[in-house]
Each structure stands twice: as structure tokens, then as C-alpha cells.
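Protocol step 4 of 6: structure prediction from sequence.
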Amino acid sequence: MTDQRTASPYDYASNDSHAPGHEAVVDLTDGAAEIDLTTPTNEQYSVPELEELIDEAISMVAQGRPLPMSSTVKVNKAELMEVLEEIREALPEELRRARWLLKEKEEFLAQARQERQEIIDQGRAQVARMIERQEITRAAEARARQIVAEARADARTLQRRVEDYCDHKLASFEAVLERTSRTLQQGREKLLGTAAAEGEIGNGPVGTPSPQVSNQPPPPPVN
């Protein structure tokens, strides 16, 4: 429900009245300010100063003299308009700063995410290279162990073959030595038998012819 009341002497029907000391009715509606995202260069206002201007405007309204039978207060229009103009001039710059900071924040976050991803990718690549080197090292060690095992097996096989060969040769030499020993023993026995026979013949009756001793060597033993 609209509050309808009789206009007081201090009310203004239009914005054409600018007499100081009267109640100010201010329309803050303004066209949308064009805000860019370039780096702010105007250092005229800062956030604390803007807050001070807003606090000053609020204080002027709060300390205004109230009018009887209404919630309207009487303030100095010129002073309030001056403060509001300063606020209006500062707002576009602060909004532009805020948008620029947001843009910088997004770019910083994007760059940070990119750098983080690059670090992660580099770490993964380094881990992959380390794993690959470890795999190569393990494969080389396994191959080396296999070569050593094969060499030891070949050495054992060769040793067994050499031992078998030597044992076979020694057995052959032993058999030859045994046969030679038997042959020598038989030869000695024959020689001893021949000498004994000759002695008996020499001791026989007179006129008995002595047997003819062959000069042929004894026949070789039969293997």
C-alpha cells in the first residue's frame, strides 16, 4: 500500500529544486556503466575510501533531523549529492578493478593448473623412465644369472666328460700293463724252464747227445 501524505514545506516535487537545507530526494538510477577488463590505472579511489564515502552518506541520513509525523528526515542536499556523486564516480572504477582481479585470478588459476599438470606429467614420465631402467637392469641381471648358470652347467658336463675319458684311458693302460706283465712273466718262466732242462741234459750219461737249442725267440703270447 502506497503511503500517501501531504507534502511538507520541505518536500520537493521535482528534481529542479536544489536549495540547500531542504530534504533531498535523490534518484540513483543510472545507465549501466561500461566496464572493461584492462589493468586499472586510476588510483583516485580505493576500497577503504569508497567505504568511508558510503558510511558518510549513511551517517548524514541517520543524523538528519526527522520531520514530524513521518519517517522522512531533513538532510543537506548539496552535501549528500556531493558524497553520492563521489560514490558514483568511484563505483565503476572499483567494479572494473574487481572484474580485472577476477580475470587475473582465473588466469592465475589456469596457469597454476597448467603448471601443476606439467609437473605431474613430468613426474609420471620420470617414473616411467625409472621403471624402464629398472626393468632393463632386472632383465640384464636375469640374463647374467642365466649365462652364469649355463656356464656352470657346461663346466660340470665338461668335467664329467674329462673324468670319464681319463678313467677310460687309465683302465685301458691298466689292461695293457696287465697283459705286458703276464707276457713278461711267461717269458721268464720259459727261460727258467729252458735253463733247467739244459742242466739236466749236461748231467746225463756219457755219449748221450745234448738236445739242440733253438735260437728262435719264443712266440708272442696270445691275447
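Step 5 (inspection) to follow. Residues 183 and 220 are 8 Å apart (CA to CA).
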